[in-house]
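The methods section describes the discrete structure representation at length, but only in general terms. What matters is that the chain and its backbone geometry are given together, residue for residue. For illustration, here is how one protein appears when written out as sequence plus structure tokens:
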Amino acid sequence: MIEENKSVKNFPNSRNVPKLRFSEFINNWEIYYLKEIAEKINNKNNDNRIVTVFSNSAVQGIVLQSDFFDKSIANKNNLDGYYIVEPFDFVYNPRLSSTAEVGAMSVNKTNLIGLVSPLYTVFKIKDKNINISFLEYLFKSKVWHNYMRSIANYGAREDRMNVRSEDFYNLPLTIPNFSEQTKVSRFLSLIDSRIQTQKKIIEGLSLQKISLVKKLFENKIKFKTNNKTRNWERKKLSEISEEHLHKNPNNKYNEVFSVAKHKGVINQIEHLGRSFSAKEILHYKLVYSGDLVYTKSPTSDFPFGIIKQNRTGRIGVVSPLYCVFKPQTYALGYLLHEYFNSSVNTFNYLNPLVQKGAKNTMNINNETFLNGASILLPMNEEEQEKIYKFLLTLDEKINLERELLTQYENQKKYLLQNLFL
């Protein structure tokens, strides 16, 4: 974690300064209305000369629309009504989401001049005593949310914050002097930099693992064993595993699992936020530790369903529509999970089964699924165990780095909550 700055003190009983503050600052914070420090931008692309279109994402900020959606949504022949956004202009997107509870406010840091939808609000800071980075962090906090909710008229569309322009620019903001603004923003930028570094560490380790798994299944990497080396063999899932048909006896197990493409087998309440009654899960299938689950539920990356191993260490249940099967060894199940973790491998395995007569993924029956194409696998248990332990070490390293990332992100949330008024 970022080392605690010992010059930051608590001010729990003060109403004119935040709960956390750098000790060298003693002056009260002052209230400004947005209209006092900002200038509304009404410049439109009347001659249609600008074709760069921005999107305002609560997570990514101002980005090129073509990058955000993998294509341009706006009609390039009809951009004359779009607002022009210059570098360091603020853009407010009134659309609501889980990461933008009152809409997303972002700064254009692209160094490009672009356009945004006329549904957005654009303004620039005109007061030289306002640090733009400080104001950007303030808008990442929730201190302005209550005011926005108080002036909102949601109207027919509940996914959009509908506010009058006059009310929007009467937004009150409590701000310290420029020196304190600068120190707060620099402090938070250090945490942001560490978060980005942590994400790159995780991405690097994940790519390293993907490359190693690919080489493993291409037989370009081999693990030595005490026994005579045996070649990998092509096996059908039905030859190396057994389908589980066990139902939930007397509702003994009440943890319902979901299967997510990134998190694998996971508690469904944690994943989807839904709870289940005992009656609902009476006929659900049991899933033991090490079992693999084929969901048959399509996603954008896995159009014929996802196949993941239960690595929770717990016994739970899944929908009776799923296929549950137990490989000969836990280590072999671990390898199969890694094999099917590739959307390409999953597609190549399942696509021929669909083409053989099934109209959709739900029509791939379990027997057909388990008797699909053979997969090249190590059948020497000692080699399976060595590969499993090697991959497990990588997974544990990645999980540790993810936990560290979560700590940094939680630290940032805490600071955003307590460094502003």
